[in-house]
Specification:
This protein is 43% helix and 19% strand. The two termini are 30 Å apart. The chain folds into 2 domains: 131 residues, Nucleotidyltransferase, domain 5; 175 residues, ATPase, nucleotide binding domain (Nucleotidyltransferase, domain 5, 2-Layer Sandwich), CATH 3.30.420.40. It is globular. It has 11 helices and 10 strands. Helix 4 crosses helix 11 and helix 6 packs across helix 8. The model has no long low-confidence stretch (mean pLDDT 95). The longest helix is centred in the last third of the chain and has 27 residues. Bound molecules: 5'-O-[(R)-(carboxyoxy)(hydroxy)phosphoryl]adenosine and zinc ion (ZN).
């Protein structure tokens, strides 16, 4: 079965052609990062307009690169939740038009469930059930994934998502958007032991996350205890500060993920989402999992960030489970 996967939930327009849920024939992403960077975050109106500008050309390019004509597709998968509503509607309307015109089945895909699945695409050794950490700009969730289409939530953030914390701390430190890669780069020259950020503690579920305290600690450091002081022109401590923040955020993610795997008796861990690009997270989780007799798997960086391959991949399994949608399918922000 060959599926086209369309993704437009946030600030990346993406289209991919995937055979049988795994073989990626093409996967293209048009990033809007440069358009949003001057505003320090995603501007929803700019995002939807930009999706409209590029989506048709991008889909055509993905089909051409895969050597597949639209009429040869078996189905069309599209992210219909959660995300920015105007952005979602661009992808969804395009998918519906294609499904209607070419008489193809349509399948709506949950963006976060697709991030869980993204780790499976290139890692055939990763077998269900496994513990999944989805760590992105909008989500920081732990799941027990029991099949491509089934999972149970084990923990989630009680405030900011991890990627959101990277983005906000970068903004506080005057580093460019998106913050994750900026912080990772600045931290390369730093000593993570120079500053002490306390490891977040969350009341209630020990597998839940919290990142807002780390963000506040960074703010106090730069602007004083009332958070109102002017930042210095240049921060001589920037490498150490970013390294310490990154180390603490990564430690928090690693500890809860390993605890989740222990509790569930899982020996394999899959990580997905934009923050899974972070090299320090990859190293620390891989090392700690090995110490505990477990294995951690990551997608390649292109499949960590938002992409159409994970949408087509999960769409294939949803269709096989009999879950296609009608042309009445709605988009949902949550
Ligand atoms: O999955 P994604 O592309 O979009 C969402 O669904 O949110 O993730 C984007 C997030 C941003 O917050 C970005 O700062 C973060 O992933 N990110 C990183 C790195 N690369 C991207 N965070 C930490 N280290 C990185 N290298
Ligand atoms: Zn995402």
């Amino acid at each position: 079965m060959i599926l086209l996967g369309i993704e437009s939930s946030c600030d990346e327009t993406a289209a991919a052609v995937v055979r049988d849920g795994r073989e990626v024939l093409s996967s293209l992403v048009s990033s809007q990062v440069a358009l949003h960077a001057p505003y320090g975050g995603v501007v929803p109106e700019i995002a939807s307009r930009s999706h409209l500008d590029v989506i048709h050309g991008l889909i055509q390019e993905a089909l051409d690169k895969a050597g597949v004509r639209a009429g040869e597709l078996d189905a069309i998968a599209v992210t219909n939740r959660p995300g920015l509503i105007g952005s979602l509607l661009v992808g969804l309307s395009t998918a519906k038009a294609l499904a209607f015109f070419y008489c193809k089945p349509l399948v709506g895909v949950h963006h976060v469930e697709a991030h869980i699945y993204s780790t499976v695409i290139e890692n055939p050794q990763l077998r269900y059930p496994f513990v999944s950490l989805v760590v992105s700009g909008g989500h920081t969730n732990l799941y027990l994934a029991t099949s491509p289409t089934e999972h149970r939530i084990l923990g989630q953030t009680v405030d900011d998502a991890a990627g959101e914390a990277f983005d906000k701390v970068a903004a506080i430190l005057g580093l460019p958007y998106p913050g994750g890669p900026s912080i990772e780069k600045a931290a390369k020259q730093g000593d993570p032991k120079k500053f002490r950020f306390s490891l977040p503690k969350v009341k209630g579920n020990p597998l839940d996350f919290s990142f807002s305290g780390l963000k506040t600690a960074a703010l106090y450091h730069v602007r004083g205890q009332d958070g109102r002081g002017k930042p210095e022109e240049s921060l001589p401590d920037l490498p150490h500060l970013t390294a310490s923040f990154q180390e603490t955020a990564v430690e928090h993610l690693v500890r809860n993920t390993l605890e989740a795997a222990r509790r569930e008796g899982a020996s394999q861990i899959g990580v997905g989402g934009g923050v899974a690009c972070n090299q320090r997270l990859r190293e620390r989780l891989t090392a700690e999992a090995a110490k505990a007799g477990m294995e951690a798997f990551f997608p390649s960086k292109a499949l960590c960030l938002d992409n159409g391959a994970m949408i087509a991949g999960l769409g294939y399994h949803l269709l096989r489970a009999g879950r296609s949608d009608s042309l009445d399918l709605d988009a949902s922000a949550r």
